[in-house]
Amino acid sequence: MATNDRSHASQTQPSTPVAAQSYTPPKRFYVALPQLALDYADYNDQVKVTSKLRKWHMCLKTSLARHELCRYLVDDVPPPNNDKSSKEYKDWRNDCFDVIELILASVQGMVLDMSNVGWYPESDNPRHIYSKVFEAFGLEGPEDL
C-alpha cells in the first residue's frame, strides 16, 4: 500500500520561527516628480515660484496618496514601538525612507539651499525635509501656495 510521502514530509519538517523570517518591504511605484530647483532668476517672481512649487506639491501628494503615505507630510509620525526588529517598526522606517527618497530625488539641485534654512541630511523625519523645501523658497509651507 502506497503512503502519501508529501503529507508526511510536511508534517515532520520544522517550520521557520517567525523571528528568523526575513523582512521584505512592499514594492511601490511612484509618480515621477518634476525636478525642483531654486532658480535665482525666478526667485523674486512669486508667481513662477508658486507655480513650480504647486506643481511639485501636487505630484508629490498624488504619488504618496496611492500608498497612504501623505500623513508623513502633515505630521511628525513617531515609530509605532521601540522594537526595531518588529514588522511594524520596519514598515514605519520603510515608509519614512520612501517619502524622504522621493522628495530628495526631486530636489537634488536644492540641497545647499535647504541646508541654509536648517535641513540636515541625517534627518529621518520626512516632515522636516518636506518643510525645508518650502523654506528654501521663502515660504512657511504648502499653506502659502
For the structure shown, list the relevant keywords.
elongated; 48% helix; mainly alpha; 145 residues
Task: Please summarize what this structure is.
With 145 residues, the chain is mostly helical.
Topology:
Blueprint: H1 5-12, H2 46-65, H3 71-74, H4 87-106, H5 111-116, H6 126-136
Biased composition (Polar residues): 9-21
Region (Disordered): 1-21
Description:
The model is unreliable at 1-12 (pLDDT under 50). The chain is mostly helical and 145 residues long. 48% of the residues lie in helices and 0% in strands. It has helices at 5-12, 46-65, 71-74, 87-106, 111-116, 126-136. It contains 6 helices and no strands. The radius of gyration is 22 Å and the shape is elongated.
Number of helices: 6
Estimate the global geometry from the Cα principal axes.
elongated
C-alpha-based Rg, rounded: 22 Å
Overall pLDDT score: 83
Order of helices and strands: HHHHHH
How many beta-strand segments? 0
Distance between the termini: 78 Å
In this structure, how is the largest beta sheet organized? none
Strand content: under 5%
Which class of secondary structure composition applies to the elements? mainly alpha
Give the total of domains: 1
- Determine the fraction of residues in helical runs and give it as a percent range: 40-55%
Unreliable spans are 1-12
